[in-house]
């Protein structure tokens, strides 16, 4: 059996061998629990027919598991000091391609066409906390050929992404992600499963882009603008938030009238509205501006 990169002893051996220094700026935390790694692959439903895009492979712990269960893994790593380490740890696997790039600057469409023959990919990653939101929203907004996104992220962020209206975690991020996909909260991961150990626990979630949009709005740009300003200051009513922050040249009286036309109290806050109601709100406001 191939030695597990993820065992604590093997992980420390690799770190010492290469004199690797963790970079706080890259949010590097390596998983040392094989059961968690297999759980991530299972949550993603990875099979031998799948082409997988992994973001931030680190020393290759998750990459190894993905390679053993998929057709091909494309691993995009920003830290050039990890490239020779990955060449060592993953040298026995012929179905892995490591690319030294910033995922936010990577031409993912080209990767899908060149490496996966244009077939939709599955994205699987242990994402750095500091860049979680830009990566997830970037993947969803650009509507790449993605079958699913299974990522381990900070537990607090996972709770915000999966939250529904009228809950304390519900906000602009919840709506932005759920507008594009179905969200499944898979499981929680203890901080003790990493080297170095982060200060908070993590969670694994799976996002599945819907083939047809669940929510319809006439003007997506306006919709997202209204959502963003509605949660700019959570304690403010929607009337005040939209009138003060949106720059839409619409009065508080007009916004109150729109809300009342929707059967809502003019004193309502953003956290009380469902995504469908935000779509209706945006469409009604568009007719007034």
Describe the overall structure:
This protein is 39% helix and 18% strand. By secondary structure, it is an alpha/beta fold. Strands 4-3-2-5-6-9-7 form a seven-stranded mixed beta sheet, with helices on both faces. α10 crosses α11 (252-261). The radius of gyration is 21 Å and the shape is elongated.
Number of strands: 9
Count of DSSP H/I helices: 12
Question: Using only CA atoms, what is the Rg?
Answer: 21 Å
Shape: elongated
Biggest sheet features: 7 strands, mixed
Strand percent estimate: 15-25%
Helix/strand structural class: alpha/beta
Distance between the termini: 66 Å
What number is the mean pLDDT?
Answer: 93
Low-confidence stretches: none
Order of helices and strands: HEHEHEHEHEHEHHEEEHHHH
Helix content: 25-40%
What strand line-up does the widest sheet have?
4-3-2-5-6-9-7
């Amino acid at each position: 059996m191939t030695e597990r990169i993820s065992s604590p002893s093997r992980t420390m051996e690799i770190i010492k061998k290469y004199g690797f220094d963790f970079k706080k700026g890259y949010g590097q935390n390596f998983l040392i629990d094989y059961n968690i790694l297999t759980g991530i692959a299972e949550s993603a439903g990875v099979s031998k027919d799948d082409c997988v895009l992994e973001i931030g492979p680190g020393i290759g712990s998750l990459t190894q598991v993905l390679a053993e269960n998929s057709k091909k893994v494309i691993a995009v790593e920003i830290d050039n000091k990890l490239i020779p380490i990955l060449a060592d740890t993953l040298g026995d696997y012929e179905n892995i391609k490591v690319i030294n790039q910033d995922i936010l600057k990577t031409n993912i469409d080209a990767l899908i066409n060149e490496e996966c023959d244009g077939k939709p990919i599955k994205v699987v990653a242990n994402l750095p906390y500091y860049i979680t939101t830009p990566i997830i929203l970037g993947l969803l907004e650009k509507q790449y050929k993605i079958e699913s996104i299974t990522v381990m992220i900070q537990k607090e962020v996972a709770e915000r992404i999966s939250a529904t209206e009228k809950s304390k975690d519900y906000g602009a991020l919840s709506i932005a992600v759920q507008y594009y996909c179905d969200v499944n909260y898979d499981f929680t991961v203890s901080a003790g499963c990493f080297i170095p150990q982060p200060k908070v626990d993590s969670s694994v979630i799976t996002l599945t882009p819907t083939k047809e949009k669940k929510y319809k709005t006439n003007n997506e740009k306006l919709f997202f603008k209204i959502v963003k300003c509605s949660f700019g200051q959570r304690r403010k009513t929607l009337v005040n938030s939209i009138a003060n922050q949106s720059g839409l040249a619409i009065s508080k009286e007009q916004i109150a009238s729109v809300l009342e036309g929707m059967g809502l109290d003019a004193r309502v806050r953003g956290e009380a509205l469902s995504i469908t109601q935000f779509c209706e709100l945006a469409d009604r406001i568009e007719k007034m501006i």
